Amino acid sequence: MKTVATRTFNHHVVKEGNTSLVLNKIIDCSPISRASVASEVGLNKGTVSSLVNDLLEDHLIYESGPGVSSGGRRPVMLLFNEAAGHSIGIDIGVNYLLGILTDLSGNIVLKKEVTFKDLSYKEIEEKLFSVIDYLQVNAPSSPHGIIGIGVGVPGIVDNDGNILLAPNLNWKNLNLRGILEDRYGLPVIIENEANAGAYGEKKFGVGTECDNIVYVSAGIGIGVGLILNGELYKGSNGFSGEMGHMTIQVDGKTCRCGNKGCWELYASEQALITRAEPMGLPLADHEEFDLTNLQALAVDGNKDVIALFEQTGDYLGVGINNIINTFNPQQVIIGNRLASAKELLEGPLNNRVAKQALWFQKNDLEIKFSELSTFSTALGVAAFSIENFLQVSIQQKNVLPV
Asked: Is 344 in contact with 310 (CB distance < 8 Å)?
């Protein structure tokens, strides 16, 4: 009996692995013929044909018209069905909430953003429900519907998806994953927003060609996501990347985390606004100090505001220099809201790194600003949900009857 059980289990595992190989090859190389799939993944044509039939039945792939013939009958081509389902990706910021609906290739189908200020957890929760409800109700019909929800949060998230601490939101020990799964009956992934942003850039942004990436999420606070050797690095308990709280000023300002002189106190969006508030800048009576208004003043040539941005870029360079010397990355990507101020930040940032980074660390190093606008995190968590869905679908398809 044990021998039979072992054989059954091994057959299940092998089939599951082969199905993943075939599906991933079709995703990466669409359109592709059955014969090409078999040749490139190293499986015989009969096995590939059987697995392809399973994937067709599950609507994860579809057939297209004949491709180019290599001498015989023109082959039927296989394509990934990116419209087979949709993923919801949510980026919760300190003063905004961005939600997107993507297809299974990460293409954004719908989006909704709300802004707020100084709200309680319950008030933000209601806005979160409203955004998810909007995306769910307005999603195009598809065979698998909404396949999962991913949420990026600016805080410390453990490997089980519990939010241990989000200091800039005043959240502590929060099981948001359980709350959302109970409400929507869908798989939910909660991730640190900088980790998700790093993954979004690796999958869809300027990081697709690099395997060692540091993603700096520069918003109200600062978080860092790490792609090392092509994989998202989270540390032993999922807490890596809290580099916004590294000390760059001994005995400096006191941070919400309890430390002094944290990087985000000098190089973040909030730091920029805090320095601007006492300056008596020419804002209209109904306007508040925010990034958009400060950028507008800089574009209009206000020298004091331009100097503020330059100082912020310099402070960004101080922290990035420390990160470069620690991780020796191929690429540093600045994302989140401050990335929109690239023209004002880039010069002083690069000058600081050029002056202080060790010379051998600068070889082949790229410092880039995100081209995904503010979507890096939402795309990253949407991608996590998509990958989880495809893995689970394959596992369920390959479970043998008892």
From this structure: yes
